[in-house]
């Protein structure tokens, strides 16, 4: 039996990731959400590497973040478009609102993007409520 939403491309983000130990130290290194790709200058669909904080474009633009992950071995990236986190090693989205190690990066980026603090959500709550 198919899971509801499966045919529409709906996916559930993982609530754990073995690669969070490769996160960089956050401090004030997260760039602004309008930072262009350092490889091509693209300003749309950019992601920030959560290991070194380089900003690169998505696989749907010129795939510089995917190349960076392969070349540097940096698995985790956060999208400036929708604030989702992708793990290239797990080949999956990771729920940055419930994975404690990712929450600070999500909160800082949310604040930079929207100018207000990020809403709180625990693992038991549905992302659809937001």
| Largest β sheet strand count, sense and barrel closure | 5 strands, antiparallel
**Helix tally?**
2
Got a strand count? 5
**Helix-strand string:** EEHEEEH
Low-confidence stretches: none
Shape: globular
Structure explained in plain terms:
It is a single chain. This protein is α+β, with helices and mostly antiparallel strands and about 130 residues long. The protein has 2 helices and 5 strands; from the N terminus they run E-E-H-E-E-E-H. The protein has a 5-stranded antiparallel sheet with strand order 2-1-3-4-5, covered by helices on one side. A hairpin with a 5-residue loop joins strand 1 (about 45-50) and strand 2. About 25% of the residues are buried. The mean pLDDT is about 90.
Descriptive key words:
5-stranded antiparallel β-sheet, 2 helices, alpha+beta, 13% strand, single chain, 130 residues
In short:
This protein is of the alpha+beta class. The longest helix is centred in the C-terminal third of the chain and has 12 residues, at 103-114. It has helices spanning 64-72, 103-114, and strands at residues 46-49, 55-57, 76-79, 85-87, 92-94.
